[in-house]
């Protein structure tokens, strides 16, 4: 890892999955502070690439098989202090459902205009920019 953080825990990889004009969001059973709805995400395992972790976590949490398209960016999350990476992914197969019932309460395909209802504090700018393009097409 090239970026030092105050947090020695592994980084978190998030998958930005867009399908039919909507983005996939999941609601955790246990909120992390203000975070309730978020993108499928989880810890990057030792030796694992960020993009691979985003793909794996999407499969584990939602049952979708996806592939990484592009790393959108990374930052230390302002709410959690964790190093976050965000990867745009496309669906290869499967139907989204709550596959990890211990971690997730529900999932939703969210339209562009409804994102602020799910994430009222706003999205990381590179993710918002990507969604502005992908969801308005």
From TrEMBL:
It comes from the Bacteria. Belongs to the Nudix hydrolase family. GO terms for molecular function: hydrolase activity. InterPro entries: Nudix_hydrolase, NUDIX_hydrolase-like_dom_sf, NUDIX_hydrolase_CS, NUDIX_hydrolase_dom. Keywords: Hydrolase. Transmembrane segments: none annotated. Its cofactor is Mg(2+). Residues 7-132 form the Nudix hydrolase domain. It comes from Streptomyces zinciresistens K42. This is Putative hydrolase. Pfam families: NUDIX (PF00293).
């Amino acid at each position: 890892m090239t970026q030092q953080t105050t947090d020695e825990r592994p980084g978190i990889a998030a998958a930005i999955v867009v399908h039919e004009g909507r983005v996939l969001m999941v609601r955790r059973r246990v909120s992390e502070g203000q975070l309730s709805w978020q993108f499928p995400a989880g810890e990057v395992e030792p030796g694992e690439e960020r993009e691979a972790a985003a793909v794996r976590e999407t499969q584990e949490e939602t049952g979708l098989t996806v592939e990484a398209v592009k790393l959108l960016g990374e930052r230390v999350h302002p709410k959690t202090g964790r190093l976050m990476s965000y990867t745009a992914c496309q669906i290869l197969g499967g139907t989204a459902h709550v596959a990890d019932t211990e971690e997730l309460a529900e999932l939703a395909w969210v339209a562009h205009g409804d994102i602020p209802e799910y994430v009222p504090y706003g999205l990381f700018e590179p993710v918002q920019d990507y969604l502005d393009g992908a969801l308005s097409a």
